[in-house]
Amino acid sequence: MREGAPPGFLRATGAVLLKDLTLEWRTLDALSAMGLFSLVVMVVFSFAFDRSLQQQIGSARLVPGVLWVTIAFASIVGLTRSFHLEHHRDSITALALAPVDRAAIFAGKAGANLAQVLVLEAVLLPLSAVLFDFDLVAVGAEMLLLVVLHTVALVEIGTLFAAIAARLGRGEALLATLLLPASTPVFLSAVLSTHHVLAGEGLAPARRWLLVTAGLDVLYFFVAMLTFEFVLDE
Amino acid sequence: MPSARPSRLPAVTILLVTTVAPLMVGALYLIFQYAPEERVMGAVQRIFYFHVPSAMVAFASTFVLLLGSVGFLWTGRRGFDYLAIAATELAFVFCTLVIVTGPIWAKPAWGTWWTWEAKLTTTLVLWLLLAASMMVRGQADNREQGARFGAILGVVAALDVPVIYKAVDWWRGQHPVVFRPGAGSSALDPRMRTAFLVAMGTFFVLYTVLLLLRYRVAAVEDRVRDLDERLA
Question: What's this model's pTM, rounded to 2 decimal places?
Answer without folding.
Answer: 0.86
